[in-house]
Amino acid sequence: MRFLLKLNVQDENFRKIQYSLDNGATWNPLSGPNVNTTLALAEGNHKVIFMADDWFTKYSKDSVNFSTVDTTSPVITTVNPREGIIYPKSPLFNINVTDETALDSSYFSLDNGITKTLFEGNFIGNPNLSEGDYQALISSVDKASNKKDSIINFSIDETTPGIIATSPKSDSTYNNKNINLECLLRDKNLDLSNSYFVLNDEIQDYFNDSIVNIPLDSSKIKEGQNKVEIYASDLARNPSDTLINFIYKDTITGLKDKVIDKKYNELIAYPNPLPRGGNVRLNYPKGKTTYIDIFDMSGRKMNKTIQDNDKNGETEVNMSDYSSGVYLYRVRSVAAIYNGIVIKE
Questions:
Q1: Are the C-beta atoms of 205 and 250 separated by less than 8 Å?
Q2: Containing domain of residue 8, as a range?
Q3: Of 19, 48, 66, 315, which sits with the fewest C-beta atoms within 10 Å of its C-beta?
């Protein structure tokens, strides 16, 4: 801050004039006897001592005490709450206000100044807020009436995310591995970067949408008991999880060759390999009602079950629409179950 210094020395034998600032040891010369100069001073209280003398070594002293004007506003430092943060519960407020000279009053308000919480210099405390969106107004005034306001927007979210899972169904049995994870994650502040699922204790993938439809990795699905764990979090770090247990039972390998009638060992599929187009003929023992099913290598059933009520021991299966590959057939009756392989060229 710059301060204008003006004075006049009346002495016909004037020789020089000098000054000392704030009781300093240094005396600074001034041009006189009429002084009109500017001093660079900081804000605050000051004292200037003047000393003038003449050619006869006579001198005189005078001093002036004064204050420069305070134009600096208070400084507000807020540790908590912070702008744009979503808290899982009412945060601990930590607000500090300083000023180069002297503070007059400080307060914070959560309703645009209608209700004020006064404090001096520093406030640490919990206003015990419930869930919702808030705007904190922090205001401070110093003795020179310089005012400083700070506005901070924050939220409190105490609700954990909701998880609605529809597939796989808990405690259900599946005969093939073509299973999708289907679920809905519900939270207005959902944090997808911290929401994911685990298949049989291995993290599989993080979600990129609240509506989830993701194929499960068939190589991770094992025979028997399986589990999917779904984890969701929101921006307030409220956690939520759900567990789905399901059973996978391979339709083909689960049917062990339980040959009661040894004649079933003589079952024949012809032609095998099967050329493009055409039917495969299955021969088996006569005299029993027999059921025939065809599956691909993933366990997906390819046909409508064929029932041989004539008990003649022979059935043709039309495979003309099947693509090239390896297929499994199952022939069963009350007497036995037999599984075999047919190759479609």
A1: no
A2: 2-68
A3: 66
